[in-house]
Amino acid sequence: MPTVVSVENVTKVYDSGFEALKGVDLQIEEGEILALLGPNGAGKTTLISTICGITTPSGGKITVAGHDVITDYRAARSLIGLVPQELSLEPFEKVMNTVKLSRGLFGKPKNDAYIEKILHQLSLWDKRSAKVMELSGGMKRRVLIAKALSHEPRVLFLDEPTAGVDVELRKDMWDVVANLKADGVTIILTTHYIEEAEAIADRVGVINQGRILLVEPKEDLMQRMGQKRLTIELQDAVANIPDALASYDLMRSGDGMALIYSYETTSSRTGITTLLSDLQKAGLQMKDLQTRQSSLEDIFVDLVKEEA
């Protein structure tokens, strides 16, 4: 797929001397969903703000569909929609007018049918005449999303779009995302709900301390870095792992009723067969077996720990 957002050696240093971005390189492909993951303070919001033209980079180059965000900022920004973390809305304005105004600010012609479609998708149609101040926090978040979509952007940034909102909105949001992806819209998502990123993302990027640690297709990442855990439930509790099983690097459960064995998903030989044989030789009786695949969250936590 062609690149729609190009970030080359981008840095951001604030007046205080804090270096928020440290030579970030990132190529975002047209029509993909990229989940950008990182702990608090990693640089996610700074990177998004820099691409969207809210923050000026200290160095490097950013283009959106070939338009430089500094020298050709009008064209670049017209292609971008942003749902920020903050609920910044005009409290006394009506929902419908708020969304229409955002479309007009980008110079788009009037299209009431399109605005109505967005409001229906986000369950806001019944609230179209309500003032923003009358809405719940979740409904205000929906208005932010509608505003970001009002000018039909080709690149949509969702910065923690479902933080602190109800399950219904989260479902609505992902339904909208699926429809936008089907229309060829590129979506960059940051979220603390990593299971959602795992469900919808095509690629995953991990940022920490202002640096991109990796960007990979989600399936490749989980295959490459994922592990499986085999939990062996025992007939009787063990106080210690027998010396004969030391080479397997087993973990003992708190109550001693299970042993846990981790192995690489990419290995041609897992070692399970010999483990079970040695288990019997050590005099341990097995009751049951359970396996669990590493989640994206497991991989993310391990990556961040390594960089700490």
Total domain modules: 2
Mean pLDDT: 87
Level-2 CATH architecture of the largest domain: 3-Layer(aba) Sandwich
**DSSP helix fraction:** 25-40%
Q: Give the overall silhouette.
A: elongated
Strand content: 25-35%
GO molecular function, one term: ATP binding
Pfam family, one: ABC_tran
Protein name: ABC transporter ATP-binding protein
Domain ABC transporter: 5-234
Structure explained in plain terms:
It is built from 10 helices and 14 strands. With 308 residues, it is α/β, with parallel strands linked by helices. It folds into 2 domains: 3-222, P-loop containing nucleotide triphosphate hydrolases (Rossmann fold, 3-Layer(aba) Sandwich), CATH 3.40.50.300; 227-294, Alpha-Beta Plaits (2-Layer Sandwich), CATH 3.30.70. The strands form 3 sheets. The chain has a 6-stranded mixed β-sheet, sandwiched between helices. A 4-stranded antiparallel β-sheet has the order 2-1-4-5. A 4-stranded antiparallel β-sheet has the order 12-13-11-14. A hairpin with a 5-residue loop joins strand 12 and strand 13. Helix 3 runs parallel beside helix 5 (137-149). The chain is elongated and about 75 Å long. The model has no long low-confidence stretch (mean pLDDT 87). This is ABC transporter ATP-binding protein. Residues 5-234 form the ABC transporter domain. It comes from Parasulfitobacter algicola. One of its GO terms (molecular function) is ATP binding.
